[in-house]
């Protein structure tokens, strides 16, 4: 009853398995020396979402974290991977400066990241 089931999926027909090249999305993350964001994001991401990390040198104060040049260099480096978004993984800066400081930083980093949402 019914027609042929069709060929098996490509993954079953090939000895090569998908390499996780971010078929659904690519997300860049720029933490300081804290390894938690870099390990949590892949655990939270859906299948087909690839996470790339670019470390930012620790600043002297939380408020200085998102100031040029280090976080800008991280955004530029991640931009070469064509991410859909970049996560600036350092909330201490937002606590120190308040939410009004986030928008100018976001705009500057999006420009450095060639338009990737930040």
* Count of extended strands: 3
What is the first-to-last residue Cα distance? 53 Å
Element string (H = helix, E = strand): HEHEHEHH
Low-confidence stretches: none
By CATH, the architecture is named: 3-Layer(aba) Sandwich
Helix run count: 5
Give the overall silhouette.
Answer: elongated
Determine the mean pLDDT: 84
Account of the 3D structure:
The protein has 118 residues and is of the alpha/beta class. It has one domain: Rossmann fold (3-Layer(aba) Sandwich). It has 5 helices and 3 strands. The chain has helices at residues 10-13, 36-44, 70-79, 91-97, 102-112; strands at residues 25-29, 49-53, 85-87. Strands 2-1-3 form a 3-stranded parallel sheet, with helices on both faces. Helix 3 (70-79) crosses helix 5 (102-112). The chain is elongated. The mean pLDDT is 84.
Features:
alpha/beta, Rossmann fold, three-stranded parallel β-sheet, elongated
Describe the secondary structure blueprint for this structure.
Elements: H1 10-13, E1 25-29, H2 36-44, E2 49-53, H3 70-79, E3 85-87, H4 91-97, H5 102-112
Parallel strand pairs: 1-2, 1-3
Helix pairs in contact: 3-5
Care to give the gist of this entry?
The protein is of the alpha/beta class. It has helices at 10-13, 36-44, 70-79, 91-97, 102-112; strands spanning 25-29, 49-53, 85-87.
């Amino acid at each position: 009853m019914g027609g042929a089931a069709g060929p098996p999926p490509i993954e079953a027909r090939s000895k090569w398995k998908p390499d996780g090249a971010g078929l659904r999305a690519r997300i860049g993350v720029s933490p300081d020396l804290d390894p938690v964001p870099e390990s949590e994001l892949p655990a939270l991401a859906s299948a087909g979402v690839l996470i790339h990390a670019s470390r930012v040198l620790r600043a002297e104060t939380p408020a200085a974290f998102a100031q040029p040049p280090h976080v800008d260099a991280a955004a530029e480096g991640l931009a070469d991977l064509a991410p859909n978004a970049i996560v600036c993984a350092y909330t201490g800066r937002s606590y120190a400066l308040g939410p009004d400081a986030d928008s100018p930083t976001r705009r500057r980093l999006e420009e450095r990241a060639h338009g990737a949402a930040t």
